[in-house]
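@channel sequence for tomorrow's demo:
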Amino acid sequence: MATKRDLKKLIRDTCGGLALEMISAGDIFKSIDPKDVEQIVYECALLQAGTLSRLSIAYDRTPADFATRHEYAHDRRAYFAKAYKALMADFWQKVEEIISHMNAALPDDVRAILKKAADA
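structure tokens (generated this afternoon):
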């Protein structure tokens, strides 16, 4: 598992990158509705803030609840692994939704230009 610091960097970089891509596309292609750009950037900001706020996860049991310290450590490790896996799965699902909204916001002529550039 990555450190909490690395996860925060990943979340900030991903959300910032998505917002930057949409802002850049809005500036380059004037046919993209500015309200769509604003809405997608807002979704990115909400995703970042929401995920970062959920990143601090607390384990509600103590070593006294277990027969041995080893059992406590094993259960605690499994708890955090499961919690972070669920958090990141939810994060990536929302990233995919934002990407879908970004693609839907692009007019057909812009989509054709971008597809042609990607194929070249």
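heads up for whoever presents: Residues 69-105 form the longest helix (37 residues).
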